[in-house]
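Reopening this ticket.

The earlier resolution said the output was attached, but the attachment link was broken on my side. Pasting everything inline this time so it's all in one place.
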Amino acid sequence: MQVFRMDDLDAERAANEGAYLRFLNERHMSVGLYALDQGAQDTQQPHQQDEVYVVVSGRAYLTVGDETTTVGRGSVVYVPAGQPHRFHHISEDLRVLVVFSPPER
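Inline output:
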């Protein structure tokens, strides 16, 4: 078993001066913490893996393909591999767990 604490992960991510921290990389999946502060720009490109977003905190809009929805704490969103997507109009600092399958390389 491995146990992670969100505060520790967010501190490590910030110390590395990046928006994303991959903290688990296993045979069939990887998991990371993605952070975008209020008003930030999300510049990510489509990924080669399926992914699931679990919003831990914050509020924003998320556009996947041609669909847009609001997301906030407790939102869970599936994004198919290769699908363009981005967070925007981030109104509260956003912290999102990202699960990739197969694992991100």
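Reporter confirms the inline version is readable. The chain has a mean pLDDT of 97. Residues 28 and 86 are 24 Å apart (CA to CA).
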